[in-house]
Amino acid sequence: MASLDSQYGRPMVAGGLGRQDVSTIETKGTALITGASSGIGAIYADRLAKRGYDLILVARNKNRLAALARRLENDTSRSVETISADLNNKTDLARIETTLRTNPGITLLVNNAGVGATTPLLDSDVEKMDEMIRLNVGALTRLTYAAAPGFVARGGGTIVNIASSVAISPETLNGVYGGSKAFVLALSLSLNHELAGKGVRVQAVLPGATATEFWDIAGLPVRNLPTEIVMAAEDTVDAALAGLDQGETVTIPSLPDKAEWDRFDAARRTMSAKLSSAVPARRYNIENPQFSRSVT
Questions:
Q1: Catalytic positions, please?
Q2: Distance CA 293, CA 296 (A)
Q3: What does residue 288 show for φ and ψ, rounded to 5 degrees?
Q4: What's the pLDDT at 292?
Q5: What is the model's pLDDT at position 18?
Q6: Which of 101, 160, 278, 280 could anchor a disulfide with 291, C-beta 3.0 to 4.6 Å?
């Protein structure tokens, strides 16, 4: 018989990851998840606990965190710690950085906290955009920097950065939001290149439209989007974890054929070898470039 995960609607087949089985799974260390009180973050917490991780859940909403922690501890018998923190507050952010630096049991960081915007740039509040940059870019960078040296020193660890499909489609929504997620993708690719030989995994997840509170906060309720483009948050996280299991550096849950990303990335890498030269490209018709006059 199959039982049902009471909150997230996933069938848990007897002999699979039901409560009794979860408690016997070898602990995989501790996962620290930001933005964990709802949506994608809360589902990551559920899935990772069922995979054998203890949890440190970070979010602003203390009551939601406490309720989620109680449920997960009851369902999975895993240890769940909560930290109420606003990552746009320097003191709160420093507390999480300290946790990442000093807790050697942390083996997985999920940088999920972030905000978005759907309003065009010219109609946006620059202060709100500045807050978005500080959270989506600044806080994520500092937390990654806090975790990575310890992972390298211990010879292993995983960093999952939740970006967005707008990282490669910046025309879709507010350009500052797209720019912030392009940063997340670029940082992830660079870190993967730098840390892969040191036993550290880095994954960037690029969801499309996902059914979470994100859209209400961003000013465009999800009910106003075409249903055919909106993915359930549970499916988004399950696809992201499947991509991690398959060794993907970049996971795009909606993309039907991974070869499309591979071609896109290969074209980028091929072009990167042509992006720096001592002389301008011939197509600009620059006569007698400085290089030809200065070299003896």
A1: 177
A2: 8
A3: 50, 60
A4: 55
A5: 42
A6: 278
Q: What is the pLDDT of residues 51-66, one digit of tens each?
A: 999 999 999 999 999 9
Number of alpha carbons in the 13 Å side-chain half-sphere of residue 201: 19
CA geometry: angle 118, 177, 108, nearest 5 deg: 125
- Average pLDDT (24-35) is 89
Q: Which 3-state string (H, E, C) describes the chain?
A: CEEECCCCCCEEECCCCCHHHHCCCCCCCEEEEECCCCHHHHHHHHHHHHHCCEEEEEECCHHHHHHHHHHHHHHHCCCEEEEECCCCCHHHHHHHHHHHHHCCCEEEEEECCCCCCCCCHHHCCHHHHHHHHHHHHHHHHHHHHHHHHHHHHHCCEEEEEECCHHHCCCCCCCHHHHHHHHHHHHHHHHHHHHHHHHCEEEEEECCCCEECCHHHHHCCCHHHCCHHHCEEHHHHHHHHHHHHHCCCCEECCCCCCHHHHHHHHHHHHHHHCCCCCCCCCHHHCCCCCHHHHHCC
Domain spans in the chain, listed from the N-terminal domain onward: 2-294
Is the pLDDT assigned to residue 207 strictly greater than 80? yes
- Locate 128 and state its tokens: 């709100």
By residue count, the chain amounts to 296
Q: Can you name the residues that pair with 153 across neighbouring β-strands? A: none
Q: Closest Cα partner for 102 from 66, 140, 56, 135?
A: 56
Q: Which backbone phi and psi does 89 adopt, to 5 degrees?
A: -100, 125
Residue 24 makes CB contacts below 8 A (sequence gap 6+) with: none
How many whole angstroms separate alpha carbon 143 and alpha carbon 35? Answer: 13
Place domain 2-294 in its CATH homologous superfamily: NAD(P)-binding Rossmann-like Domain (3.40.50.720)
> Do 244 and 203 form a contact (C-beta atoms < 8 A)?
yes
